[in-house]
C-alpha cells in the first residue's frame, strides 16, 4: 500500500523543552547532559554556535568558549511532555503518528485530499510546531526511516521524496553516519566498529553499500547496515510503532517565570488549547466544558489554593480559535491572588462530534455557530449566569410570558399558527410595574400627561394559579417622544370598583 510520511525533526528539543529564555538573548544558551561519565553539551543555540560551541563538546570547553552563555541542565521528562503535546496538536492533521525522539512522524496519505495536498499539510504541520514552541526541520518520503534520514539533512533545503523511486534517489548521497545517528537498536553496541570497517572498505555514502557484495558484508558483521538500508528504501517492511492518545485529556505546563499578570497566562494556555483540539479530533469529540487550573506559588508562610475556572460552552466546539477566545475572556476578568507557577487544562465534559462536511454552497449553520461563539464570549466576559435566553410561555400575563433559561437548554419553539398576530410589546419591562399619578382619568409620567395611542388590550387571566389579573393595556406617547406601555388596573370579580382608577407603567419601547 502506498504511504507518504512527513518527519518533523526537532534538533533543539532539549532547549525548546525548557521554554523561552529572554535572558539568553544575545548571550547564547546551551544544554548539557551527562554521557559516559562526563558532562557534555547536548545542544547549543545559534549564538553559542557562533562562538564555537558544538554538540558533544565537554562542558568545560564550552564554558571557556562562551563564558557568557546561559548553561542549562537537560530535563528529559520535559522533552517527553513537549513531544506528546506536539503529537496531540498534530492530531488535527492525521491520527497516524509515530514518536521517535527527537522526531515526530506523520502518515499523510489518507489526509491529503482533506487538506488540499502535500504543501498545505506541510505548512500546517510547521505552524503547529511553531505554536508549540519548537524549531523543526521536515522532509517527505515514502518510508518512515527515509523521512527521518532526510529530515536531519533538511537544514539547507527541504527534501521531497513523494514516490518510492524519488525517495531512494534522495537517500543515495547521504553519509553512513546518518544511519548511525538514528540510534536504531539494530546498530546498538557495534555500530561504531562496523562503521569503521565499512569506511576501511571505501564506503562513505549509502550508495556505496550497493557497490559492495552483500554476502561479504553479512560475514563481516555489517548485515544490520544492509537491513536498515533496505527498510529505508522500502525493500523490506518497517512496521511503525503507532502512538496513541491518552484516554482522558489533562495537560499541564510549567511557566518559565512566575506570572503576575494575565498576559503570560494567555500565551501559555494557547499551546494547551491546540493540543486539546488535536485530542478532540482524534477522539471525534467536541468540548462542552473546560477546566483550567492555575497553580499559585507556595511560600514558607503563605499557602494559596489553586484557582479553578470551569467554563461551559453554549455549543460544543473543537475549534481552537473559539476555545482560546473564551478562555482569554475569562482570564481577563480574573484577579490573581498570587503569582502563577503552572497551568493545567482539562476536558470537563465532551460530546460526540463527527465534524461538519464541506460544501460549495454557503453553510446554513455558519450563522448559528457565530451566534454560539458570541454567547460563549459574553458569558466568559460578563459571567455565566448573566447571559440567558428568553423562551416564550403560554401565558398572557406579560411578567409570566417568558422564561429565562441557559443558552444550551434552548429548543426552537413551534411556529405560531398562520395568521396569528401579537399586539406590540416593549423590549424593557419594569419589575415590578411602577404606579403612575392620575389627572382627569389619564396617567401622568414625570408630572406630564401621557397620550394614549391605542385602544385598550384587555388581559384577564390567572385564575388557574390564584394570581388573577384584570388589566387594560395601552401604548402611550410621552412628552419626551418615548413610547410607554401602561395599563389600567380593574377590580377583581367580587371586589368594589377602584376609584380613582389606578394606572401603572409596565414597560418602555426601545
Features:
510 residues; alpha+beta; 22 strands; 28% strand; elongated
Describe this structure in words.
- With 510 residues, the chain is α+β, with helices and mostly antiparallel strands.
- Helices cover 30% and strands 28% of the residues.
- The chain has 16 helices and 22 strands.
- The chain has helices at residues 13-16, 46-50, 59-65, 76-89, 112-115, 118-132, 144-151, 164-171, 177-180, 191-200, 206-209, 214-219, 223-232, 262-283, 320-332, 366-382, and strands at residues 5-9, 29-35, 38-44, 70-73, 97-100, 103-107, 137-141, 159-160, 250-259, 285-296, 307-317, 340-352, 389-392, 402-405, 428-439, 442-445, 448-449, 451-452, 457-461, 469-477, 483-489, 502-508.
- Strands 15, 16, 17, 18, 19, 20, 21 and 22 form an eight-stranded antiparallel beta sheet that branches.
Which regions have little confidence, pLDDT < 50, spanning 5+ residues? 414-419
- The helix/strand class is alpha+beta
Query: Outline, from the CA principal axes?
Result: elongated
Report the β-strand fraction as a percent range.
Answer: 25-35%
Separation, N- and C-terminal Cα atoms: 67 Å
Gist of the model:
The chain has 510 residues and is α+β, with helices and mostly antiparallel strands. The protein has 16 helices and 22 strands. The chain is elongated and about 120 Å long.
What's the topology here?
Elements: E1 5-9, H1 13-16, E2 29-35, E3 38-44, H2 46-50, H3 59-65, E4 70-73, H4 76-89, E5 97-100, E6 103-107, H5 112-115, H6 118-132, E7 137-141, H7 144-151, E8 159-160, H8 164-171, H9 177-180, H10 191-200, H11 206-209, H12 214-219, H13 223-232, E9 250-259, H14 262-283, E10 285-296, E11 307-317, H15 320-332, E12 340-352, H16 366-382, E13 389-392, E14 402-405, E15 428-439, E16 442-445, E17 448-449, E18 451-452, E19 457-461, E20 469-477, E21 483-489, E22 502-508
Parallel strand pairs: 2-4, 7-8
Antiparallel strand pairs: 1-6, 1-7, 2-3, 5-6, 9-12, 10-11, 10-12, 13-14, 15-16, 15-22, 16-17, 18-20, 19-20, 20-21, 21-22
